Amino acid sequence: MTTPPADAPAPLLFSPLKLRSLTLKNRTVVSPMCMYSAQNGVANDFHLTHLGQFALGGAGLIVTEATAVSPEGRISPEDLGLWTDEQIVPLGHITDFVHRHGSLIGVQLAHAGRKASTYSPWRGRGAVPAELGGWEVIGPDGERFHETYPVPAPMSHDDIRRVVADFAAAARRAVVAGFDAAEIHAAHGYLLHQFLSPLANTRTDEYGGSFENRIRLLLEVVRAVRSAWPMHLPLFVRVSATDWAEGGWDLDQTVQLASLLRFEGVDVLDVSSGGLTTAQRITVGPLYQVPFAARVRAEVPELLTMAVGMIETPEQAEGILQNGDADLVALGRPFLRDPHWPQRAARTLGATPPLPDMYARAGW
């Protein structure tokens, strides 16, 4: 391990960040990662242990996996949910634990749309049949994601109004559960992303066709959630900056959307990519999505950005912040491999490790 020189500037990764009334103790974020381990959308001891370990490891912000706003909005039968009050208290045990150990926690509110009712990765592929707990799915139109996926029912205007209301109701439950931040999932080919992309949205009404029409549902959801979510707490939106496919959603449209979201009370754009179509052709490599966040930050400086995607090392994370490419850095797999990643990163970068008292004797 290389020790930074004594006159080295303090690492930005371990500088605080104020988001409305919150202050994150550092810029490391646990990215949402589906665990497929709930029953009827209810969190259990696995989720408490899984998410709690990241608080003990010093993360500035922990974001839950995609948490469905309705039963039919789940990706799999084992997804977390916030569509009923009985799901509140188990999540509250988690938020209480995270707060007691010095971190903040956000909830990712999601609806899978045409990618719903599918198997957990290690249980199978494609659509879950009704006899095994599957259900009918909805989408912008009747086109399915893949031949092994369910065929969606095109959403009526009543369906659209219900989905918007479901997002708002889930946000209100998240407040009661004690979450510090909310993130609206509009990426990775799920429902809101499906409406954004011309490759998944062939509607001819006011929710399809033009850019203004395709973003309409997302804006309605953002407004509904922002109204339900306390004004003193931050709101994130996760987007796929590009579909990586000809004729799809792209970075230019993402920047245009970002310039509108800042007027809707959104505080942070979580910039990912892909997931909309099997025709995607992704050029994968270290930091491959960072340029998307960087462009949004450069062209819409009023909106904070979060970079994510194959960010592995403390040096990479610090470089993103030092270069001005993003304001926050989200990691997924590195946290699964090492829940104490922030403590190791702090040591590497010459900062004081964020240690709970119980772990101080480890001598970081």
Automatic annotation (TrEMBL):
Keyword terms of this UniProt record: Flavoprotein, FMN, NADP, Oxidoreductase
One of the record's GO molecular function terms: NADPH dehydrogenase activity
UniProt xrefs under Pfam families: Oxidored_FMN
Protein name per Swiss-Prot or TrEMBL: NADH:flavin oxidoreductase/NADH oxidase
Gene3D superfamilies: Aldolase class I
All copies of domain NADH:flavin oxidoreductase/NADH oxidase N-terminal, residue ranges: 13-348
Cofactor(s) listed: FMN
Top-rank taxon: Bacteria
Species annotation: Deinococcus terrestris
InterPro entries: Aldolase_TIM, OxRdtase_FMN_N, YqjM-like
